[in-house]
Structure formats: C-alpha cells, structure tokens
Amino acid sequence: MKYAYYPGCSLDATGIEYDIANKLVARTLGIELVEIPDWNCCGATSAHTTNHLLALALPARNLAIAEAHGFEQVAVPCAACFARCKKTAAAVQASPDLQVQISEVIGMTYAAKSEILSYLDVIGKKTGLDHIKKHVVQPLTGLKIAAYYGCLLVRPVDITQSDDPENPMVMDRLLQVIGAEPIAWDYKTECCGASQVVPVPQLGKKLIHDILKNAASYGADAIATACPLCMLNLDMRQKQINAMFGTQFHIPVFHFTELMALSFGYSAQDFGLAKHFESAESLLERMIGGKGA
Amino acid sequence: MRRIGVFICHCGSNIAATVDCAKVAEAARGFPGVVYSADYKYMCSEPGQEFIKAAIAQEDLNAIVVASCTPRMHELTFRKTLANGGLNPYLFEMANLREQCSWVHTDKEKATVKAIDLVKMAAAKANKNEELTSSTMPVHKKALVIGAGIAGMQAALDIADAGHQVVLVEREPTIGGKMPMLDKTFPTMDCSACISTPKMVEVAQHPNIELLAYAEVTEVKGFIGSFTVQIRQKAKYVDHDKCTGCGLCETKCPSKVPNEYDLGLGQRACIYKPFAQAVPNKPVIDPLHCRKLVDNKCGLCAKVCPTGAVNYQDAERLFTDTFGAIVMATGYDLYPWEEIYGEYGYGRFPDVITGLQFERMVNASGPTGGKLKRPSDGQEPKSVVFIKCVGSREPAKAKGYCSRACCMYTAKHAHQVLDKIPDAAVYVFYMDVRAAGKAYDEFYEATLKDGAVYLRGRVSKIYQEGSKLIVKGEDSLLGRPVQVTADLVVLATAMIPSQGSRELAQTVGFLPDLDGWYQEAHPKLRPVETPTAGVFLAGACQGPKDIPDTVAQAGAAAAKVCGLLSKSQLETNPMTARSNPAICSGCGLCVAVCPYKAIQLISLADRDRYGKRINRTVADVNHGLCQGCGACTVTCRSGAIDLQGFKNNQILEEVDALWR
Amino acid sequence: MNAIQIKMREVAGQLLSLGEVDRVIGWEKGRFAHQSPPAFITDETKVERLIWDEYCLTGTAKYLLDDPYRAGKTGLFARGCDARAINRLIQDGQVKRENIVIIGICCTGMSDSVSRQMAAKCCDCTHPTPVVYDLMIGEPVKPVAKPERFKAVAELEQKAAQEKSEYWTRQFAKCIRCYACRNICPACNCRECFADQYRVGWLGKQHHTAENQVFGLTRAYHIADRCIECGECARVCPVGIPLMELNRKLIKDIQQLFGDYHAGVDSETAPPLGRYSLDDMEEFM
Amino acid sequence: MALMTEANWEPKVLAFCCNWCSYSGADLVGLNRMKYPENVRIVRVPCSARVNPQFIIRAFQRGADGVLVAGCHPGDCHYSTGNYYTRRRFLVMKRLLEFIGIESQRFQARWISGAEAVKFRDTVTKLCEDIKALGPQRKLRDQK
C-alpha cells in the first residue's frame, strides 16, 4: 500500500518520536509513506478563527499537491491536521463554487477526490489486523492500556466517519492485537484541553486531570494516543496537574505506533521514547524485561 | 341542444360599480347555446332564485350560468335552485365576477371586457355540462377498532354508546395499552390505573363491543361502507370459556421470565396475565418459554387447573368479518435509545432507565411496590437526573419531532421523586419546557417550587464512578459545563410509531408519513381521517400525544364513524373519475397515481377486431373511494379516464372560448 | 451476418416444428436490395425466407399489437431496441411475456437505405444486446452510455427562443399528418389515439403548421418517460422531421431532474412521471 | 368592442388554479380589495394535478400570451399527493415549451396557498408585466 504522508508541523517538533515510530511501523508492515513535497501548515485552530477561506486553502494546497502526484489516499497522523483536511475536502465536495475559489487561491486544481485517512485508520482499518499480528514478536502481554482518541479524530462524525463517535474501538482492537489489554473506560473521546490549557489554564488542566483520573480509576498502566497534541498535553503536564490537584499521577503516555514498534521488536532507542516526560522505563522493565530499553 | 340561461348579478354595487352588468348580459346573448340572459341586483336572494326558476320554465332553459361571487360561496345555493326548478343541479356553471373581477379591478371598461370573457368561459363549459347523478353504496353498520389502548377503548366505547356494533382488536393478551402502566397522570396527579381500568371493564362488558384480545388484523379488502377484514386470533392455550381466572396456574408455573409489562423490572410466569387487572382477566401461555410447549415437559398448569381450561393443542384461528368503518388506534413505542446513545452508555449502566420504567417503579402495583430503588443495588436514590428529548428533536441521530408528552411527565417524575424522597436532589436537563396545555405550566412551576433544579442544556456523557453515575452536560444559560453525581438517571425517550404499524397501514391501504406516523387526510381540516375513505385515526398512531389529546381525538374519530354508520347508504360524489372501457387500453398508469387506491384493473369480456370472444384488462374506478382530484386523467394519454364535471372537453372548451 | 441468418432459420424451424410457437416474426428480402421488410412465417418449411442483412431496420415488437389476442405463441426476433420495445408493451399491459418466445440477436447496427452509412438510430443505440430474451444469437455486448446522442438537443437548447421556434415551425410545416411516427412507435399503444378523437377536440383535423406542431408536441409528451429510443419515428417520417430530438430533449430532462431512467430496460420500474419523490427539484416556490 | 390592434394590445393570461388553495387565494385577493392587472382569466380545477399539459399547449395555440398553473404547496395538497405529480409534469413541460421556443416567462407554475393573497397578486402582476415586455405570443398560434 502506498500513501501520501502529511506529517504536519507537530511531527517535525514536539511529536518527532511519533513520526519516527510511524515510519518504523510502516516499514515493518510494508506500507509505503511518501511525504508530500513542500507541504505547509494545515492552519490548525488558528486559521479558522481568523479567515475561513484561508483555513480551507491551507490544507487544500497540501491535498492538491498529493493529488497532482497521483495519490488516491492521504495519511494524516495528527488529529488536528486530519480534522482540517477532512473538513476542507467535505467543503469543496459540497460546493463547486468553492472549489473554483480555492483552486484560484492556491494556484492549482484541487478536485477533492483523494481519500483522507488518519494514520490510526490507515493502520487500524486499512492494513488488516491479521497482517499486523504476524509481525508481533514481543507481545505487550498484561499491559492495561487506556486507548485515548480525543475529539478531533471522532467528531463531527459526518466529517470524520468515525466508527463510533461515543465509543470508538479502532485503537482498542489494534492494541489487543499487539498483546496489550485495552480497558473499557469513560474518557476515550473527551477533550484533552489542548486549546484551553494556555488561555484558561484552570479549565484546561481540569480536563487533563479528569482524563488521567478516569484512566487511573480503571487501573490503566498507560495511555495510548493517536495525536501529537493529546500526547503532549497528557504527558508533559502531569507534574503541573499533580501540583494543582494534589495528585500523584505518573502514567506513561504513548503514541500508539510506539507501542506497535515495541511489539514488533524495536527498542526504545529506535524511536524517541526518552523524549517523553513521564518515564516509561519501569513499566517497560516490568512488561518486557527491559528489552525495550 | 343546450338552451343556456345567463344571469348576471350586481351584488348590490359590489359588482355593478366596476362592471357594466347590462352590457355583459347583452354580450352573453351572442355566445353559443345562450338563449336568454338577464341582470339582477341580488341573484342569491330569494327573489333572485325565483327569477331563475321562472326563466327555466318560461324559456325552456336546460343549462344555467350565474355570474356573481365565487363558486366557493354560492355554487351549492344555485345548484339547489336548479334542482328546485326541475333541472339536474350539475347543469350549472358559475362565473366569478366579484372576488376575481370587480373587487380586484378599478377600470370599469377593462373590468367589463374581462367579465364578458369570464361569462363566455362559463357558458362554454355549461354548453358541455352533463347531467350527473349520485350513486349509492351500502354501509355495514359495524366498526372495527384496531388497538385497545386508551384511544381505541375510548373510540370503541363512544361508537358503541351511539348504538353501533364494534369489534375491538388488540394484539396483546390484555387491553389497556400503556395508560394502566403509568402511575399518576399530570397535571391532576390522579391515579392512572384508577381511571383506565374501569374503562377496560366497561369495554369488556359493553353489549355492543366484541373484544378480540391477543388477535391481529391480517388482511383488509373493500372500501368505505364495506371493508372485508381477516383477523387472526393467536393461540392462547387456555380456553377462556372454561377458565375462571383464579390464577392458580400462575402461582404454580415453575418458569419465570422478565415481565414485558414491567419493562424487565419484574418477572412473570409462562402462563400469565400481564397484570392483575388485565382484561380479559384470564391467562395465556407464552409459547416461546413454556416448558410444555417448548420441550414437552412440565404440564403443571394443566394439572392444577380446576376447570381443565389449559389446552396445549390450541392453535391460531383465522376469521373474516365485514365493517363499514375502521379506526386505527395503534399507539406508540419508545425509541430504542440503547442502540444509538453511546454517550449514555448504550444501556450498559443498570441505573440509567427510561421514563416508562420509572412509571412502573413508582407505581404501587409495580415490581417495587411503588418504592424508588436503583435497579443495580436496590438502594433508594438520593440524587436523580432526568434527561429530556432523548431521541426527540434530534434530527442528526434520531427523530426531528417533539414527542410532546415528555416535558410534562418529566415534571411529574421530578415532583414524585421529591415527594417520595424529600431529601433527594433532582436535576432536569432540558432544551425547552413546552408546557402548553390546561394547567400544565402551573404544574411545571410547582415542580420548580418543589425544588427540582432545571438545567438548560444537553448531557454529553454519562459514566460510572464507583456506584455513582457521573452526568456531564452543559448549562447553556450560564455557558458552563456542569457535572452532576447521580444515583439514578431517567431518560425521556422519544415516542415512535408502534412496532408493525407501517406494515399494518399497508394492509389497511394507506401510507404513513416519513417518520412512520399515520398521515391524516388534511393536517388542519381532516385531522382524524386518513386519505383512505372510511379509515379514521385515534391517538398517538397519528403523532405523539398525551392522554387528554388522545382521548379527544378518539372521540372525534368516533363521531366521524357514527356519522358514517348512521346512514344505511352512502351517496357518492358524482364529480368523480370515470373510465371509458371502450377506449381504455389497460396500461394501468392511472392506478399508480391515485392517492385513494380507487382505481383497479379489471377483466372485461369483449370481442377482438376479428369478432373473437376475449377478455381484456381495463381500469375501473370505485366511486366510493374516488375523491375527484383528477390526477389520473393526466396520466391517460387517450383520455379514457376522465373526471365528471371537469372533463377534458369541458376544460378545452373553456380555453377555446376565450379566443373565440 | 450469415452465421446469424443460418442460426435464425435453424431456431425458427425448430420452434415451429416443435410447436413451441405458431409463427415467427423476423425479416425477409423485399422487392429492393436495400430494404428488408418484416416477415411473418407460420410454416416451418418457409423459414428460408428469413434473412439477416444490414437493412433489417424495422422494429418487430409493434407487430405483436396487430393481433394482440391471438391464441398461439409468437417467436419474435429481437435486437436491443426490439427487446426494450417488448418490455414497453409488457409494462403497458399490451402483451403477455408468456405469449412470446424472444429470440435475441446481438446487433451491430444497420445501414441507412439511402446513404448506405450506419443508420442514425443505430449510431445512437445504447443497448445493442437484448435486455430480455429466451434464446440468444451472437455474442452479447455491454450497454454503452453514448452521452453524445444528446448533443443536437444541447446545441438547440442554447439557441434563442426565436430561432428555436423558427426551427420547429419549419420542421412541422413539412408534416403531412400521416401518423407513421405514431403507428411505428411501441410506446404509442393506446386503443384510440388522442389525435383521432375529434369529439373531445384534443386536436383539429386541419393540416396546418400549428396543429401539426401541437400533434408533435403532444405525442412527444405522451411518450416522454416511456420512449425506448428505438428511433423508428424519425426513421419512418417521410418528410424527415427530427422527431428524436424532441424525444431526447424529454429523456435528457427527465434523467437530469428525476435520476437515471432508461425506459424498457426492464418491465418493472415505473416511468418517472407516474411517480414522485418528496425531494424533487423545487422551482415553483 | 374595439378591435384589438398592435397599438392597444393587452395580453391575455390564462391561470389554472386548484380549487382548494390557489383559487381561494385568488378569492382572498378580492376580499382584501387588492388590485392586479385585468389580463388574467382563471380556470378552476379541483387540483393542479388535473391540469393536463395539453391544456397549456392548447392555450398557447389559441392565443394565450401567458399561462399560469397554480396549486397548493407541496405537502398541503387537498388530495395528499396531487401536486407532487404536478411538479414533475410541469418541470418537464416547462423545459419542453422552452425547447420549442416559447419564452420561459410565458409559462409559470407556482404554489399559492389559500392564505397567500399577496403572493397571488404579486405573481400575476409580475407575469403580466413580463409578458407586456415580451409582446404578443405568436408561436404555436393558429393562423387566422
């Protein structure tokens, strides 16, 4: 399988280990990821609060380049980028006028014909769980993991085409295949507070706290994410949360592809596990006898 | 030859001020077929009508045109005048000189030119008018009521009290429907069972009502006045003639299953009456769970029955009867919220229940004896959250309509919780409070005073934390998220048409609306009739309703039925479609467009062009069903099907006259 | 072509001799080399009359209506257009499927008797292979979309009202009201045509352009959602009125307005003007 | 009556109105004493679905300068579904008329309820104005 790959800005910076893990997983599974040449920022939350046309034109340019290179499918690892790309495609498909307007703005034709997939769906829906299972050499047996999807991967459902916006199961099934034990918990699709934590810290941090608390209450050893922003929030801010709420959370947070890479036999050095704030060392020690480290 | 008389009305100065009536009358004398014309101050007055009658006699007129006001006002008046004058009333035509000429124009010369044209058109049509006569159809003086909830019972009683025979069919083992399941009724808080069970008994004892519980309608043929209906009596496995209803069998039956009547909150035996006051107050055997019927084991009920009423060999029975009218009263079901509300846990939290389950729980004769208990642990809830509009007003995932009764029963539930558990906290998540009804808003206000906390906003998530339910939502008035820790959550789920109602509508011969509710013939003017003549609507099958509205509508439907059954013959409207078998080629295109299913293809004995005896297919219009819309006429390329009173040649003649 | 002709005679002979049909309708060689008129054969020894050449232009199905109540079964040679015509007649209740044995022929197109080029009606054919048959001669070909058959209509649509009016006035000025278009049309199967009903007065008997045009328009509307595009009307018109342009205009609009519909491709789907959808386009608000 | 010449030409517009909605809407214009041009002549039919497109062709043939078909709004048909057929028939017929050169303004279909007196008045007023601008209708006409 061959996909145009749109990493987005996060995967070039705070989420660089996600990018590395994605590529490791792709290599193992025989998926060819071709990075869209000369890609630009998707606009994320800033663009559509500023100018609607701009918010659509930014992703449209990336998607148009992918189309020009003949790609029928685009893989997007970041949930925010994914939401923006999907929204743009839907808007252009719904309005021929808008298509003309956008194509004029970006200086190339955007037909909105290619299928846009989150990287989670590429692995979890398009690749085949049986195929993945064949590559598992180091099953993560006994790892109680909370699969966390956040909001932008699942909502609005008519844009994202999520399997179930209230109780998605794609990542859960994937984690099960690599030997882990996904838990049934309640905060799978609650907001991680990404856009609140800077302007309204007390609100944003409460959102993070609630997610950690619910995961902990169900006995999760770790949390798996499919978005660099969710990852950053849940991982980086645990210290602040503990200070603010008087809690003692130290829950390792992973990109789902990191866990897959581990199960495929890669070691933590192969990607950037050391870049995480909450150390996973002792957990991995317990899990796979330090083979990961 | 038509000898047409034309009468121009001044309508005082209403017409005469803007139209030169004498000039119009004069011009009319030149129109084809017109032998007499006159103008007069008030044609509709007694002398005006006498004037027409006299002219009919003196001038030997055989068609009349009156040019006055709109035919919607006086067409019937003048038709009677013709009849009194000895002419067929359909040899009449009207020109609308007032509403559509003098009142809308000011230039007298131009208005007069137009008036002449209008009279010319009317005269041209009158020239082609034919005598039309009504035919009659017999009326079987017996009504069928389908569904014996409060709507069906009320309709049956009202029809029966008027002296007509009624057959009341109910598919459940007991009549009563949902109303006896309820505890109290808003806003008066009188006991629901106390007012509905006497009705059930009254139905059972009424000499004019034949009750067929545990039965279903399987086939309907015919039309208004004589519907031939096939009814299937399900196997009861208990001979109700022998059974005394002592209930011994129920107490001895060793198999227990969840009781549908208590919505799974309680249990029943496999030989059972749904509830204590069931009518008929005699049990049936549940063939899916009875050990004797499933495995041929047990047989205890037959052994203990003192009258030998249990009969495991019982089989269903089909029989046929003829009715003059049918009342649909099939009621509603509740939306299966567990299928789509992932945010409320897809039904996996036992302490999230529906309003109807709450009713059973709060009901003194219900599974908990009227005590509010959490289904999970039997504890008394101290914090109860109600969520309204679950499935209603939710076009994105469920139904777009409002279910109408939920605002009030939720207010009632809130009040009941506060009444029974005074230290309880009650929260109601709502979108709007729709309390339009007599004493409804006062009731809602009282509930607020009782201490119920109304939070305007939707609930986004319910999850379990320990033994508690965490309810997350929004207070949209404050613009803040809210979180409530609850012991019990009660959902006001949407009403949906009862299961199987769409198929039943097809059986009876009409179509439900897009949501599956039974479509009334006209939303304003014919709210209890269906487009199929002789089929009427009562209660929630037509759309969500509370009890008072249901009963009122049932009474209205009954009045319509009584009106119909009070006649022994029905006079049909003669302005209906006729098919000319000589021209009809039997293509059947007209059959499909008829909204009343009035056209069918029949076989006609004929000879072909070589003189050989053949049978060929032609369209045939049932004049009892046809309402005279004329949609069929346009589908017929050869004009074999035509509409009496608005025939192709009559309308073409009107068009032609304008440029003659 | 000869292989088809050999097979036709063989099949016809078998059907007649086994008594499965008591007549077959096909084509034979007429007086002129460039005409192959229909043949009606009841005797198995006469099957040699049947031919298959490039001038078998006439549709066979409409001949079923010449004696619709005859007792025996008819073996009907049917190309794509004839098969759709049969469906048309079945759907309109004019013939019964069980009374016909359809011998399908996969047709590659016929030649115009005058120009000797591919006949216009065959150039525009979308279903060369029969859509309904009992026996099949030849190799089936998939239906082709042929959107270009609407080209003439689309071009005319672009013209000014005056130009359009002049065009059609000129065309119908030629009409001699012979009704050949109606008589050959499988969708025109009324027992009594509106054009013959002088009592109702749908149409005057006078032969002048306005009446001719009203006839043409009315006929086009009558078959609007039921025309199977066999092109016979235009082919038989002795004065060459482009009748298929009117029919195609209606087919094009109906497809655009109410969704894809090809009359006669099956005998079940109701014609679009005999049904409706709540979501139909709204331009009368 | 003065002979109609080019100079004093007044258009004649034929309107087919369904009895239940549009005809009573037209009556309501009168009851409210609102005014519209004298050029309109109304033919009453039970339902807009009774209007055979052939009637429209006939009107143009005989000399109508414009034709209006008016019925109840979709969903409000007195006979439940009649106007849905009307809609299909005249969506098609309108295009056919344009195809043979009848200007689009000359034939219109409109949904006018029994309460929409203003809509009736405005519709026929606009129709008459459009037709006056176009001039007499000569296509499809009988030669006299």
Question: Could you tell me the mean pLDDT of chain C?
Answer: 94
The helix/strand class of chain A is alpha/beta
Number of strand segments of chain A: 8
Low-pLDDT windows of residues of chain C: none
The ordered H/E elements of chain C are HEEEHEHEHHHHHH
Sheet with the most strands, sense and barrel status of chain C: 5 strands, mixed
Give the C-alpha Rg of chain C. 20 Å
Strand order of the largest sheet of chain A: 2-1-3-4
Helix content percent band of chain A: 40-55%
Please state roughly what percent of the residues of chain C sit in beta strands, choosing from under 5%, 5-15%, 15-25%, 25-35%, 35-45% or over 45%: 5-15%
Oligomer kind: heterotetramer
End-to-end CA span of chain A: 31 Å
Side by side, the strands of the main sheet of chain C go 2-1-3-4-5
Strand content of chain A: 5-15%
Polypeptide structure, described:
The complex is a heterotetramer of chains A (293), B (660), C (285) and D (144). Chain A is an alpha/beta fold and 293 residues long. Chain A is 47% helix and 10% strand. With 660 residues, chain B is of the alpha/beta class. Chain B folds into five domains: 4-128, Rossmann fold (3-Layer(aba) Sandwich), CATH 3.40.50; 142-234 and 316-331 and 498-565, FAD/NAD(P)-binding domain (3-Layer(bba) Sandwich), CATH 3.50.50; 248-304, no CATH class; 333-496, FAD/NAD(P)-binding domain (3-Layer(bba) Sandwich); 577-644, Alpha-Beta Plaits (2-Layer Sandwich). Helices cover 28% and strands 26% of the residues of chain B. A five-stranded parallel sheet of chain B has the order 10-7-6-18-29. Chain B has a five-stranded parallel sheet with strand order 20-27-21-22-23. In chain B, strands 2-1-3-4 form a four-stranded parallel sheet, sandwiched between helices. In chain B, helix 1 links the parallel strand 1 and strand 2. In chain B, helix 2 (46-59) crosses helix 3 (71-84) and helix 6 (150-161) runs parallel beside helix 15. Chain B is elongated, with a radius of gyration of 32 Å. In chain C, strands 2-1-3-4-5 form a five-stranded mixed sheet. Chain C has helices at 2-17, 80-91, 120-123, 151-157, 161-173, 180-184, 209-222, 232-236, 243-258, and strands at residues 23-27, 38-41, 74-78, 100-105, 135-137. Chain C folds into two domains: 3-137, no CATH class; 147-274, no CATH class. Chain C has 285 residues and is α/β, with parallel strands linked by helices. Chain D has 144 residues and is α/β, with parallel strands linked by helices. Chain D has one domain. Helix content of chain D is 39%, strand content 16%. Chain D has helices spanning 22-31, 53-62, 82-99, 117-134; strands at 13-18, 40-45, 66-71, 107-111. Chain D has a four-stranded parallel sheet with strand order 2-1-3-4, with helices on both faces. In chain D, helix 1 crosses helix 4 (117-134). The chains are: A alpha/beta (293), B alpha/beta (660), C alpha/beta (285), D alpha/beta (144). Chains in contact: A-B, B-C, B-D, C-D. The B-D interface holds B 70-72, 96, 98-100, 102-107, 110-111, 113-114, 117-118, 121, 519, 521-523, 531, 575, 593, 595, 627-631, 633-634, 643, 646, 648, 651-652, 654-656, 658-659 and D 1, 10, 12, 14, 19, 23-24, 26-31, 33-36, 38, 41-47, 49-53, 55, 58-59, 62-64, 76, 78-82, 85, 89, 121.
